């Protein structure tokens, strides 16, 4: 399900904690992979520990695609993008980069989230990595 709201405020405490941890343990930064960057300064990174992909725009977390790991499958459960990004294709960018990462790692996708399900239905180039259940 796609929910509209301010993702940045939801994750503020998490980012603050991560920043403090990173100061004392620089290797912790390696758990984040920057997957893509474009002219709008939008990046998608994979937060393995929290099981989510995060869309950062100009340094602010404005989108998230959460999943649960089940063996070689990533079950996408929730996608949320800030309303300020509506109509800019950022939700699609978030999912596209997440799916590309899943494919590169040889995993499968279970699209329980309505947004992810609609995206893979519309874009059949992902059908090779999609499990319905």
From TrEMBL:
GO terms for molecular function: acyltransferase activity, transferring groups other than amino-acyl groups. It comes from the Bacteria. It holds the Pfam family Acetyltransf_CG. The keyword Transferase applies. InterPro entries: Acyl_CoA_acyltransferase, Gcn5-rel_NAT, GNAT_dom, GNAT_YJDJ. CDD domains: NAT_SF. Keywords: Transferase. Residues 1-133, 45-131 form the N-acetyltransferase domain. The keyword Protein biosynthesis does not apply. This is N-acetyltransferase. It comes from Stutzerimonas zhaodongensis. The lineage of its organism: Bacteria, Pseudomonadati, Pseudomonadota, Gammaproteobacteria, Pseudomonadales.
